Amino acid sequence: xxxxxxxxxxxxxxxxxxxxxxxxxxxxxxxxxxxxxxxxxxxxxxxxxxxxxxxxxxxxxxxxxxxxxxxxxxxxxxxxxxxxxxxxxxxxxxxxxxxxxxxxxxxxxxxxxxxxxxxxxxxxxxxxxxxxxxxxx
Length: 137
Ligand code: CDP
Ligand code: MG
Prior knowledge:
Blueprint (H helix, E strand, L loop, with lengths): L1 E7 L1 H5 L3 H10 L3 E8 L3 H7 L9 H8 L4 E8 L2 H9 L12 H5 L8 E3 L3 H11 L7
């Protein structure tokens, strides 16, 4: 059993896709173990994307994550980390396979709707960062 972090980015919330994205997660038989709508603070977002600190898009992606409400979700299930990454699709929606969230619902890399943890280490770090209070179940 694994638990992974999913963020629905500001564009996904603004486009009223919270339900659609969560529906797909639950339809895969993954369980929502934590869920909240928040305004992310800059420090949390910068820590979240720390691996990208030197990349040219770092400031833009951090500004974007802070630009409106986001959903933070802890998702649990067998092989949840890989299952969710596969469901999200490629980082650039233009490369994302139809049937994936990005491949079906997004068009630009700047607004690719979701974040999900890339591996076990990232999942543990990101869940501690976004759910310091822990999860409900
Ligand atoms: O989100 P994912 O793990 O698929 O991609 P990433 O390589 O960890 O990049 C984090 C986020 O930065 C992406 O989801 C994009 O929103 C953004 N990004 C960007 O704006 N331009 C790039 N060339 C690469 C990433
Ligand atoms: Mg990533």
